[in-house]
Amino acid sequence: MYIVCVTSCPAGIAHTYMAAANLEKAAKKMGIDIKVEKQGIAGIEDELSEEEIARADGVIIAADISIAQKERFEGKTIIECGVSEAIKNPEGVINKLIEEVKKNV
Amino acid sequence: MSKVNHGELIRKALMTGVSYVIPFVVAGGVLMTLSVMIWGVDAVKVEGTVPYIMKQYGASILGLMVPIIAGYISYSLADRPGLAPGMAAGLVAVQTGGGFLGGLVGGLIAGYVMMYIKKIKVNKTFMGVMNFLVYPILGSLIVGIIMLFIIGKPIGAINTALTNWLKGLEGINAMILAAIIGAMACFDMGGPVNKAAFTFSLAAIQAGIGEPYAAFTAAKMVPGFAMALSALVFPKLYTEDEQEAAKASWVLAAAGITEGAIPFALADPLTVIPSMMVGGAVASAITRWGGASLLTLGGSLFTLPLTKNAWALILGLVVGTIVAALVVSFLKGLKYRRKNDLKTANGGN
């Protein structure tokens, strides 16, 4: 299982990075490969490449604002949630995506 | 695609607008306030001089605020085609006196208009023409007609009424409003409720009223300082991780970043959040009582020199921090004792 994520919050200073850190931590614990792109006040950090998106089984968008370049994920299994949900309950968010992925197989 | 949740869509659009407008307000507000600070209120009024030009420069950047927020609200709803009609709507909002409120409404209208225009299906050959010519022209035309001739004036009137109400607020009413802003700022520490209070303060800045943002600034620093203070005085109420977080939380708080206190709130929300809200409300009310005013974003200890009546903000912050720290220590102390009582009771069995 390989998933890619985008996190983004209005100020782009703290929540964006906390959500990213917690998603990464949770995925590691669950034995899932993950890459998280941060869209904060500095712009896009750790940008997902085309190849990474193509390889991903699913996409998590944890954002309180509209993210940039969402069209990259067209045709993918996507779940969207607020940034704070990804901070508080990253395992839950990842599990939700896994369920969706299984449904679409 | 599943059914669209318009409430969620609009909330996200407003937050996107706010997100993109922040740097403009930081730059414009600081440059404007700095020129007044350096050269004085009278010097910046003499046309053609450097002080005058610099103050105007800051003011023009601040003037971009409404078009930018409207543009990015619309962008959030309709993607790139939304940007031009959205900014156009914001421009009209400025001209018709709609201010910040006009910008929010105009941006939403532009976004929805573009969302529907984009649904017009055309032959693939003509898609380029649609994108290049039809979207911007038709979109700006429709949005312009709505804003200029239908809702521009009424919104201008509402905005003026709101601004006058805010300016006329005095004494206890002003302090109550400030206390609400402060409590909201501390409710979710940088989350949606905090951002709602922030957006309100932003709207006030746009109307040239700096008191709400000064109140917001005092409150948003309270959680970080209060948790650090409580953890310093009563270390046994906190886990090792929390004591570590406390060391960072006051630094973040000094920079005006409330998020440093989130680990505490997550670990024990029912104790921490109400305590911080009380402290934040106290901090804001005192700040407003003393007439502190801040017209630039990025509010923190570093913007104190730019703050009018900064003493009130400092006083509010200190008192608010002590109150929040006392309440949270007391509540945590109760919990701690109860836990220990249970332990002794179990040990006795």
Please write the string of helix (H) and strand (E) elements of chain A.
EHEEHEEHH
Q: Provide the gyration radius of chain B in Å.
A: 24 Å
> Largest sheet of chain B, if any?
none
> What is the CATH level 1 assignment of chain A?
Alpha Beta
Structural class of chain A: alpha/beta
The most extensive contact between chains is: A-B, 18 and 23 residues
End-to-end separation of chain A in angstroms reads 13 Å
CATH topology of chain A: Rossmann fold
Radius of gyration of chain A: 12 Å
Query: How large a portion of the residues of chain B is in β-strands, by DSSP E?
Result: under 5%
Helix content of chain B: over 70%
Q: How many structural units, i.e. domains of chain A? A: 1
Given the helix and strand composition of chain B, which structural class is it?
mainly alpha
Indicate the multimeric state: heterodimer
Strand order of the largest sheet of chain A: 3-2-1-4-5
Subcellular location (chain B): Cell inner membrane
Organism (chain B): Caldanaerobacter subterraneus
InterPro entries (chain B): Bacterial_PTS_Sugar_Transport, PTS_EIIC, PTS_EIIC_2, PTS_IIC_fruc
Protein name (chain B): PTS system fructose-specific IIC component
Explain what you see.
The complex is a heterodimer of chains A (105) and B (349). By secondary structure, chain A is of the alpha/beta class. Chain A has a single domain (2-104), classed as Rossmann fold, CATH 3.40.50.2300. Helix content of chain A is 41%, strand content 27%. Chain A is built from 4 helices and 5 strands, in the order E-H-E-E-H-E-E-H-H. Chain A has a 5-stranded mixed sheet. Chain A starts with a strand and ends with a helix. Chain B is mostly helical. Chain B folds into 2 domains: 6-168, no CATH class; 171-348, no CATH class. Chain B contains 13 helices and no strands. In chain B, helix 3 (65-78) runs parallel beside helix 5, helix 4 (83-95) packs parallel to helix 6 and helix 7 (171-187) packs across helix 8 (192-206). Chain B is globular and about 80 Å long. The termini of chain B are far apart. The mean pLDDT of chain B is 92. Chain A binds chain B through residues 9-15, 18, 41, 63-66, 71, 82, 84, 87-88, and chain B through 12-13, 15-16, 18-19, 22-23, 75-77, 79, 188, 190-192, 195, 252, 257, 259-260, 262, 266.
